[in-house]
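Complex record, two chains
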Amino acid sequence: MNSTAILEEFANRDYEHGFVTDVEQDRFPPGLDESVIRALSAIKKEPEWLLEWRLAAYRRWQQQQEPEWAKVDYEPVDYQSISYYAAPKTNSLESLDEVDPEILKTYEKLGIPLDEQKILAGVAVDAVFDSVSVATTYKEKLGEAGIIFCSFSEAVQEHPELIRRFLGSVVPPGDNFFATLNSAVFSDGSFVYVPKGVRCPMELSTYFRINASNTGQFERTLIVADEGAYVSYLEGCTAPQRDENQLHAAVVELVALKGATIKYSTVQNWYPGDKETGAGGIYNFVTKRGLCEEKASISWTQVETGSAITWKYPSVVLKGDDSIGEFYSVALTSGRQQADTGSKMIHIGRNTRSTIISKGISAGRGQNTYRGQVKILPKAANARNFSQCDSMLIGSDCGAHTFPYIDVRNPTARMEHEATTSKIGEDQIFYCNQRGLSTEDAVSMIVNGFCKEVFRKLPMEFAVEAQKLLGVSLEGSVG
Amino acid sequence: MLEIRNLHASIGDTEILKGINLSIGDGEIHAVMGPNGSGKSTLASVLAGKEDYRVTEGEILYQGNNLLDLDAETRAREGLFLAFQYPVEIPGVGNSYFLKAALNAIRKHRGETELDAFDFLQLVKEKMKLVQMDESLLKRAVNEGFSGGEKKRNEIFHMAVLEPRMAILDETDSGLDIDALRIVSDGVNALRSPERSFLVITHYQRLLDHIVPDFVHVLKDGRIVRSGGRELALELEAEGYEDLHDRDGLRVAAGA
């Protein structure tokens, strides 16, 4: 097989997380109206104000239009055919023993170290299985440091004052079509609070998995780092393989108070859909945004290899003086995948700095778009931004597109933007072959080299995982 | 070691090699000289297994086996090495990491144990002295931002680490100043051994002042038109390719 053929088969890998877990479900019939939201809120025993908050968002959502500006093409979503709540039947959360063994098996297959012995590596996992958080580990140890790490539903019960203070403070309930929908119907997610001056002693991690068919997953994640605090958080995502598309519209809000640091890393490996038709893949419409107060710093790192459609722009609002925002991204599209992703950096405070490093890899018939905005507001004196958008093409049927928007309203701003597009050359492959390396290893090596700057930003153990994930992506393709 | 018989090769519809015959014994150094466009680099590429070229006729035996049956990586693992005329840059892939992966792929193929990072580093340090290579080039990405001379030196360094049986140097002297040329040549000479053969492709005879060949062949318009000893190179130096006689004493028309 010549290397062109091998490269073009890059996309033909199988999705290894495509199994379905058989557990009994409590679920709502499909459809969405106010009664669904009331029922959802009632099941979760939510306070009155939160119900009103949801309902206000729902009413707002009905007025909003689904955005069409992204460079993605998909069948319209029928929001009335989705079930807005699904939960495994036994979900008392006292200990791991009570968790449905089928669910634990699922996590095992995913390689998530849920049981206590395996977690000695220092990863605390809050696992979200469809709509409820099944088990939260290491909670006690974190508790000693005053750190709260629990499911969102639990936080509503246990820490209502924090939820009320910060929920919607970064992504307002009417922010955009998908975020508004999420505000109305979010089912669960994770909540983290790190108190003043505390450095979280371990990586916090959530694995999301969409199991039930025809359920949208609408998680809500809220992370608050109080003054001078530090936390590093990783989310990983997979979903079973199905014939119909599944919707995922999550909202992540990060709040970094004065001098705080939040690092948020994502390894997303949702089912990308059928290689030929794109059927069955996840529609991933996610709103992620962080807010930096004075001298605070927020860093987004993402490795996106899955989903049929990705619509995602992790952003940082640099409100406080001397605050720092960073975005490091690897997005791989193959088969029929489409990604429209990038970052927004909004500079409000003085001496604010931001960095955007985006690496897009397109293979098969994948379409990869970088869309980013850097905005320097009038009061943001001495703001600096560095953006670098690199695209790599593998084969001749894919596409890479770059749409950087730059809006500068203060003359002291310093902006740098670099962009490159490259193709894995047959010459590069041949050079590797001539040194004894197989084409598969060569492609993997070249792609990993291309992504190195981003992988370096991931926590060590996850960098290895991300590299493996790309490796797996390449492996099946060379067959 | 290597036996080329009546080799014809084309790219697209254009025939470039038009019946090459060449036999290289163990431990021998053969130089192939010729004007631009004579097919020198094509010969190197065909031997290394580049897919762009189609072999239409003839055969190549390498250590008694049919070379054309093997893909490029298998040829490399069997000890065939090409020092590229234009070494390719591979951004983000460390030179040392790359070379270790290559060496271990070859060792694995031979049924030898793979070298760990420590043993590899020791080997590399020793080999770097051969080509007087700066250690910083080991940490940088493969050929990325290397000067022309550094790239060529890096090729010889790869060769020193991978220890091939049959090494092909494709215009390794082009773009080198006299000091770099000497360093590269010294590296090659240090690797001369009774078990290792070389095919040195060059446009200029000056390389052969440093790497002294056992045989010299003149390639012109896809054919070897003359073969001889070391003195043939000197003759060419004096008279140029324009004024060349083929083996039968016939005048060969001046080419490009």
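Note: Chain B touches chain A at residues 48-52, 71-73, 75-77, 81-82, 84, 87-88, 90-93, 98-99, 101-103, 105-106, 109, 141, 158, 162 (CB under 8 Å).
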